[in-house]
Input
Amino acid sequence: MSKESLHHGDTTGNTYTDLGATTREAYEISRKSRTLARETLGNSGPEDRVRQRCSAAVGDFAMADLIRFTMDPVAAGLKALERGDPIITDIRMVEVGIQKRGHRSEVLCALDFSQGAGEAGITRTSQGFKNLGPRIGNSIVVIGNAPSALLTLCGMIRDGIVPSLVIGTPVGFVNAAESKALLRTIEVPSISTEGTRGGTPVAVAALNEIITMFAEQPGRNS
Output
């Protein structure tokens, strides 16, 4: 099954790559889901691929209309993976969900750097990003849950610490929509969702699709 799941081809065409599918059944389920998403959402380029995967991740094609792309984020993500830029996540679920095959970037979680959050009176994710400091620069940041972390990150970017790519899709009724709207005003490549919807599955799906595109490039040994 690994040969099929790692077949190098353009997923915008008729071939299909799924780095996470390790059995025939898993691959067929994934392939059928993507075929339906292609037919429903269109299949004209990299951004459509991200829309397809994010919609499949939440089981709702309406998600495609909520995804926003700023400053050519797919191209920025591919370049970051080529350099081996680290991937920094807000919570453990995002860290675990990110595909580890097909690239050489280290995957870190801000929660592992959250010392001092109690004394500061802020969320652990926010403190984690603060403590990571300059390491945020030239990294891929993936925030799927914590609006507070995204607000903190936006402040850091405005202070001059600029990631290679930000995927910001926090979900909820408190600061989620606002944090993503703020992200879209900042000059940094980003993928975000409009409004209160989003979450870990969307953030993970967006980056995993970029990783898949990276691994599909000719000469890659996934």
User: Anything to note?
Assistant: Confidence is low (pLDDT under 50) at residues 1-14. The radius of gyration is 17 Å. The first helix runs from residue 2 to 5.
